[in-house]
Amino acid sequence: VSMEIKKKDARGLVLVLFLGQLLAFSVAAASFASSFLANLGVDAPLTQSFFAYLLLTLVYVPILLHRRQKPRIPWYWYLALAFVDTQGGYLVVKAYQYSSITSVTLLDCWTVVWVILLTWYALGTRYSFWQFLGAGTCVAGLGLVLLSDAKSPDEQGKYATTPSVP
C-alpha cells in the first residue's frame, strides 16, 4: 500500500511540475508575442488577451458545469473580478508598446509579492514555509533579471519602442 501511495504522489508531483512549466512557457510565449507585435506597431491589447480568456473559459466552465456546484460567491463578484483582471491584462499588454520586454516582465513579477502582501493583510491568509520559499525564489529570479538588465545598458534602448504620436 505504501508503494502505491508513493507512486501516486510522484505522478501527481510530476503532473503539477509539468503543468507549471507549461503555464510558464505559455506566459513567456505571450510576452514574446506581445513585445514582437508592439515592435511591429500593432496596437490591439484586448485582442491579444482575448485568446487567453477564451482558453480559460473553455477549460473552467465545463469543469464547473461537470461538478454541478453552485458558485461560492454571487455571479456579480465574478463579473467585477473579470473586469479588474481584464483591465490589468490590458495594461500589461499595453506596456509593451512603451517599454522593453525585460522591463515589463520585471514589473509583472512584482505581482507575486503584492498578492502575498495584500491577501495576508486584507484576507488574513496564512502561508506555509514552502509558499514563502516559492515566492522567495520568484523574487530572487526577479533580482537576477534586474542585475542582468543593469549589466547591459546599451541593450536596454535597443528593443524599446517609442509611442507614435498621431
From TrEMBL:
This is EamA domain-containing protein. PANTHER family: DUF914-RELATED, EAMA DOMAIN-CONTAINING PROTEIN. One of its GO terms (cellular component) is membrane. It comes from the Eukaryota. The lineage of its organism: Eukaryota, Viridiplantae, Streptophyta, Embryophyta, Tracheophyta. It is found in: Membrane. Belongs to the SLC35F solute transporter family. It is a multi-pass membrane protein. One of its GO terms (molecular function) is transmembrane transporter activity. Keywords: Membrane, Transmembrane, Transmembrane helix, Transport. The chain crosses the membrane at residues 45-65, 104-123, 129-148.
